[in-house]
Write a structure and sequence with these properties.
Ribosomal Protein L30, Chain: A; 4 helices; about 60% helix; alpha+beta
Length: about 90
């Protein structure tokens, strides 16, 4: 069934094209200043923007720090884990 294979490939391609959120979650280990510094290093955020996201993490338990393609989102997740931050990826649609 060649048509089925094409549909499966299309579904996979569509899943990669859907925007993905990189979400950082609150944890009891990392200092707020450390989290803000990591956001500056990984995402190139200004100090003000990094602190805004850090405060969202602290007060709301999570912050969507980036939205875009899946491959880049997965790279950001790996980098955040490398800095020992708790982060996940979630589909926006």
């Amino acid at each position: 069934m060649p048509g089925t294979l094409v549909e499966q490939e299309t579904e996979t391609d569509d899943a990669l094209d859907v925007p993905w959120n990189v979400v950082v979650h609150n944890d009891p280990v990392n200092l707020m200043s450390y989290v803000a510094q990591v956001f500056q290093k990984i995402f190139g955020y200004s100090r003000q923007r990094a602190e805004k996201h850090m405060l969202e993490v602290h007060r709301q338990g999570r912050s969507i720090v980036w939205t875009g393609g899946r491959e880049r989102a997965e790279l950001y997740i790996q980098q955040l884990h490398g800095w020992l931050l708790l982060a996940t990826i979630e589909r926006t649609a």
